[in-house]
Structures are given as structure tokens and as C-alpha cells.
Amino acid sequence: MKTNIVVMSAAALALAFTATACSGTDSGGRTAAVSGASDSGSVTTGSVRELTELAGQNVQVDYTPLTSPADARKKADLIVEGTLTKVEDGIRLAAANPAQSPQAGSEETYVTFVVNVHKVLDGDARRVVGGKVYVSVYTDGTTSPAKLAALNPQAKVVAVLDDITDWSPSPAETVVRPANIPAGAPLYAPYTDGLWLQGRSDTQMFGVGVEADELPTGWKRAKTVNQFSAAFK
What we know:
The chain has 233 residues and is α+β, with helices and mostly antiparallel strands. The chain is 18% helix and 31% strand.
């Protein structure tokens, strides 16, 4: 695992150190926090704002920004454009030996963003299984996948992804994939500033714990999913 994708709460500091050690690209950057969200009915309004706010609330994000499309291509395993079709149960971290460490990994909470891929912008298209990619997004655990799914207006997505199929958080922990992810499908997780969503009524794209205004100048001031995607062409 080599990305800045796994973002941790204070209670998960040990895993944050593990993720950084495995990363090699995540030793700097800034800290951001998103907290609170209104109950505005994102599906009926066609906006993905509330979904992204709830997914990112109370999560502190330390990351090194992707400086440009070229930087994203260099670091990512796969970059796709598509539609967020579902939000489902995510991976969990379990003790490698429950008898010795029954609480290992119990603090970490993830949901799965199921993205129906329309276009592979970079990487091996064969790594898209059944037309979909399964993206693990870290959350604070206070909002259920069902709640997030109810707020999904079938948002357009561009995702810069790292393959975490063989990721091992630590010798004491193992990754358990949920039943909703096919056994042969790779596990992916997004770079912090590489997951952007936009609903049909949104005039801008939204990230989970990040804002489009925070993108470096190498992204040519991309404010929408279409502009972010076009930067790869």
C-alpha cells in the first residue's frame, strides 16, 4: 500500500503510522476536518454535498496532494470515470489471531463506494471487474452505509485509486472484505484528493474531507468532475 488513502481518527493512531510507513507518499501535507451536515434530501435535490459531508465528518485527513494529472498517473494503480451506483458495507480490520488480540482493528470503519465505470482514464482496464470498481472509504462510523446510500443521487465520479487487495495493516491485523464485494474483484481505495463526486444539480464537484479549491495549480483550477477528468486527456 503506497498511498495517502487511509485516514485515521485519533483513536486509530497506530494504524495511521502503519499506513504512512507503507505509503512512501504520505509523509507531509495538511490536516483538514469536515464536521456536521444538514438533512437536506440530497437525492431529491440531485446534490451529492450531504453525502460527502457525512462521509467525511469527524475524519482528520493528513495527505500529500496530487500535484498534477501526471503525478496522479505516476502514483495510482487505476484512474476511472463513472457513476456512484451504491454505498455498501466496507472492509473491516480483524485480529490476525483473535485469541491473542481480540480488539485489533476494531476501531476502524469503512464503507464501500461501488462505481460503475464508464471510462478508464489510466491503468489496466482488466482490473475493472464486471464493469465496476469497489472503493474503500474510511469514515468515523456514525453514518451507516444505508444512510449514505439514501443520499446518493447517482453521482458522477472520477477516482484516482490505489490497489489495496494485498494490504496488511499490521502483523496483528488482517483485512476482511464484505460479502457484497465479489471474491475476484480487487480492493481499491482513493487518494484523498483523488475522489470527486458531482450530482446532477451540482455546479461543482465535492470530495470527502477536501475541497476543489485545495487542488494544486497543476490541475488547471478544475472545479467539476468533467474538468478534473479532462485534465487527464
